Amino acid sequence: MTEMVYGSMPSRVSEPVIPRWWRTIDKWTLTAVLVLFAIGLLLGLAASVPLAERNGLDPYYYVTRQAFFGGMALAAIFGVSMLSPAMVRRLGVLGFAISFFALMMLPMFGTDFGKGAVRWFSFGFASVQPSEFLKPGFMIVIAWLTASGQDINGPPGKFLSFALTVTVVLFLAFQPDFGQAMLVLFGWGVIYFVSGAPMILIVTMMALTGAGGFAAYHGSEHFARRIDGFLTSDVDPRSQMGYATSAIQEGGFFGVGVGEGQVKWTLPDAHTDFIIAVAAEEYGLVLVLIIIALYAVVVVRSLVRLTRERDPFTRLAGTGLACIFGVQAMINMGVAVRLLPAKGMTLPFVSYGGSSVIAAGITVGMLLAMTRTRPQGQMSDIFKRGR
Question: What is the 3-state secondary structure (H, E, C) of 73-110?
Fold first, then answer.
């Protein structure tokens, strides 16, 4: 019936999996991600050595671990991107269920590593941050519910997605992890808007989010301290923001030179949350613009390819994944230049962190799977036949 309505394109049935994957994948997006990972290793060689020395470890301890985690992320990208949208949906639902259960267990078994927010499970040799793995699965589940709600006699998908989003946001806020909570809420808003939500509802959600932020400011010392630090006109030069701001200013257009930067010796999170400050100081504005362009390639290319997709679930899930990937990068860089309050959010594929880079690999793998060229044709074919 589907072929009678929409028509079809010939499929190379006998074509092996790898050649078919290579022919249908978005090579620009894949290349941009690989370059981002290479830049992350390059910056890690500079940013993580001082931390390793302070902790009495081998100078390249963190770089080696980043390369190991990066290998796992690349395996996730290639493996997940070969799946069909239906298989990605199953993987996403399962991943979300496991991650959400882990998120609920954090208050009892989690640790804060002295940072004031219980976000990790510590296993001694490594730690896991469930919220990083929750995001791609959450986007898949929300897209599935929303798309199912558009079917005749389908479930109340939009209401269920809203209820699930509120639940997840509350669990994240209690850690507290307001950065991830806002990112999850943003992802839901994007999918809801693309699926045809009325603007009045979007405006209402923005107002409720503002009210929630006001309540968090007065109810959480951790949150209030970060907001106050952002709003103050005077930046303490000995604070993380002060060091980052000074490093970016010192870098100028072309940087102070490879290995010549000083911020990595004074900034505790130079290899994670403020890695862009290291890039700006040693390599200048040139490298920062290259990094921004690479993220733009991933997001824009994905969104353009998704406009040709017919299946509502694939279109919604891909849009949500692309947007949270790009917005997370924007938030990280916005914090470093003091456009946004500190969020404790990593720069995908560039910052150090096992959970972050592997979860980013899963996200991009799902995105590449959603944007592959498929034999069912494109959305524009419908309009051509209607002439």
Answer: HHHHHHHHHCCCHHHHHHHHHHHHHHHHHHHHHHHHHC
Query: Model-level pTM?
Result: 0.86
Tens digits of residue pLDDT in 312-351: 999 999 999 999 999 999 999 988 887 787 777 889 999 9
Q: How many domains does the chain have?
A: 1
The DSSP H or E segment spanning 312 is helix 312-336
Q: b or e along 47-86 (b: 16 or more beta carbons within 10 Å of the residue's beta carbon)?
A: bbbbbbeeeeeeeebbbebbeebbeebbebbbebbbbebe
Instruction: Give a yes or no: residue 33 inside a domain.
Output: yes
Q: What is the pLDDT of residues 217-266, one digit of tens each?
A: 676 666 666 666 666 656 655 666 777 777 888 888 888 887 777 777 77
DSSP-derived letter for residue 236 is P
Residue 2 lies in a domain: no
Domain assignment of residue 116, yes or no: no
Confirm whether 112 is domain-assigned. no
